[in-house]
Here is the input.
Amino acid sequence: MIVALIVLGVVLLIALFFVLIRNSMVASRNRVDESWSGIDVQLKRRHDLIPNLVETVKGYATHERETFEKVTEARADAMRAVGKGPDAAASAEAALGGALANLRAVAENYPELRATENFQQLQRSLSEIEDEIQASRRIYNSNVNSYNTKIQIFPNSIVAGMGGFTAREFFEISDPTERDPVEVKF
Here is the structure.
């Protein structure tokens, strides 16, 4: 009888330990998902702002058609990358960032464009959104780091393997040239 109670107690402790670890992993995974949705919101804001920026510049620089097409294509690619994970999003957003840099370079050639209130407001909005994307990315990557560590340490790794918890990807720049700062002169 005493042995049965001891065995039952050990089984209950193991079950409790398993439940606590699993719940902790679920909470951590949910934080990763929540922080990714924050990035999605900021990317959507960026994607919505870009057509306004392109149209404003188009009014002044009608012969820069190739630049406008590249920005439009890069925006479409970035929007298609939504939901395909951090790697796909990072790659598409890097291409969009490069296209936007070219658009800013075109704007440099038109002093009257740079002086318009509409263009200045769009530039400020884009800068704010870029800052928000960076902040959201830092939060997401921090949550991914915490989650990945949690599922990889022992004995959590046993529970993670049984529960189907897999490591998440960081949202980072894959092209080293994208790390160079964009020079914008007005």
Observations:
- The helical segments are 2-58, 65-80, 86-108, 111-115, 117-152, 156-163.
- Residues 87 and 171 are 6 Å apart (CA to CA).
- DSSP finds six helices and no strands in the chain.
- The mean pLDDT is 83.
